[in-house]
Amino acid sequence: MHQDSHAVTIQACRHCGAGAPADAHFCPKCDKILSLARHGDYFTFLGLPRRLHVDLKDLDRRLRALSRQFHPDFYYNSAPSERLASLERASYLNDAYRTLHDPVTRIEYLLEIEGVPLRKRNEGAGGVPEALLEEVFELNEELDAIREARAAGAPETETRARLEAARRPVDRHLAEHERRLEDLTAQWDAMVDRSASASERRPVLEALKTLLLEKSYVNNLLAAIQREAGEQT
To answer: Rounded to whole angstroms, how far apart are CA atoms 173 and 139?
Structure first.
């Protein structure tokens, strides 16, 4: 059976020396707040499986519950190590909540902790289909032509019609991406639920990565069209 991709790490409590899992918040022996051992991840920290469908109401409840436990005001008169631990955990909690609350950053984070990070900015367009890159190039050329036509005094009705025509394939791409994202999300969550092996999970992760890269390009196209349309209003 597939083991979870992060191993259980034991950390020693600074107060009593007892061992506790790295994802525990309080020492099971003395009940003191533990220093933050960054061997886990945001999902584990919040007590969630690494699924991509997240119940946001449940996420909010977990945030409130842990915020009450970690709030630095409760440790005002505690030892310095406990005050530091509460600050670390409160900060990490906020980072975890912000990341997992947004669907896109949730996927990006999952890819990172599963060892399939998105490319860096200086890595070019690797992973993006050539056909999509060609569409990006053609649309940018059309936008340049629309700008030139507008500068030459073309009627607004003409340039607006060209912008609307340029937007239609972009909207179709975004709708297709949303559909594919739902499919891949369902596939991933099903694999998590049945503890699929890393080799089974990898193709879905790679497909999610490619989809996010494509979507960033399509979103940039849409933003460019919207800017041009805004300049005509």
So the answer is: 13
Over the stretch 141-157, which tens digit does the pLDDT of each residue have? Answer: 999 999 899 889 999 89
Residue type, 44: T
Give 33's strand partners.
26
- If we measure between CA atoms, which residue out of 19, 88, 45 comes closest to residue 27? 19
* Cβ contacts of 20 within 8 Å, gap of 6 or more: 10, 11, 12, 13, 26, 27, 28, 29, 34
- Which two tokens mark 223? 């933003």
Number of other CB atoms surrounding residue 4 within 10 Å: 11
For tokens 């991406």, the residue is: 177
The pLDDT value given to residue 121: 45
Amino acid at 19: G
**Ranges 10-19, 67-76, 87-96, 120-129, most confident:** 87-96
Q: Which helix (H) or strand (E) segment is 58 a member of?
A: helix 56-70
pLDDT for residue 8 is more than 90: no
CA 93 – CA 63 distance, rounded (Å): 7
